[in-house]
Amino acid sequence: MRKRTAMAKADSGALSGLRVLVGRARHQAGALSGELRKHGASVLEIPFIEIRRPKSFNPLDSVLKNLAEYDWLILTSVNGVDAMWDRLARLRLTRMNLRHLRVAAIGPATKKAIEQRGIKVDVVPKEYVAESVVRSLRRRVKGKRVLLVRAKVARDVIPTELGKAGAQVDVVEAYETVVPRSSRTRLRRALKNPRRRPHVVTFTSSSTVRNFMDLLGKARTSLEGIELASIGPVTSSSLRELGLRVNIAAKEFTIRGLVEAIVSAVSSERL
């Protein structure tokens, strides 16, 4: 890989000649792919994750109709924001129905999505993981009622720890993530094709890690010589739990931080 690194340094783009596999959901891949291309990378998009509506919106609709009962709203992803506001619109509810709420967003992208809809975000943790959300809110939610809007399958750190802090936490499903079966053949072909085989595979959540392994199946040897890049500590933990290495880890747990980590790895001849 050293020859490829030398090419990258000589080129105007820091990632020139680098092939990067982006596995975000199809409708969200653009942000990461765009940042990588700005640095000269060649991007291959094969989604490891697909966002679907839950089997029923009844639980979400029910809590949205009773938002007056809550003190805090916590949103942990842009997907959750999108799903919630879609249901609000269908129920003919407006931002006025949320004006009494204190709002926490897990990171800057989620914060931006909320603020674009005219709602003030009161808390964004220093680190964009569930544990940091808990640290930011633990002393503020005692005796309060908290609504957590999230994916069907997610870690229980927030509801468990805030419950210990004296909050009443209601968790409601806004969407679910599934494995896009159509990606299985594309992924395996890309890994076997020397002209398309990525130098780096990016992971932006634990779900992308688990689904990647599902899509890969028993073809573990296909990863030899490929660097695995993680957006944050929870994602890194999932990689290690499944027996994979973490070659590149973002210091700032955002898309920009992930790209910066990849650029830094190339610059320091880690690739």
Q: Which outline best applies?
A: elongated
Helix content: 25-40%
Structural class by SSE content? alpha/beta
Radius of gyration: 20 Å
Largest sheet: 5 strands, parallel
* Helix and strand element order: HEHEEHEHEHHEHEHEHEHEH
Task: Give the CATH topology of the largest domain.
Answer: Rossmann fold
Mean pLDDT: 87
Gap from first CA to last CA: 6 Å
Question: How would you summarize the topology of this molecule?
Answer:
Elements: H1 2-10, E1 19-22, H2 29-38, E2 42-45, E3 50-52, H3 58-64, E4 72-75, H4 78-90, E5 102-105, H5 108-115, H6 130-137, E6 145-151, H7 157-164, E7 168-178, H8 183-192, E8 200-203, H9 206-216, E9 227-230, H10 233-241, E10 248-249, H11 255-267
Parallel strand pairs: 1-2, 1-8, 4-5, 4-6, 6-7, 8-9, 9-10
Antiparallel strand pairs: 3-7
Helix pairs in contact: 6-7, 9-10
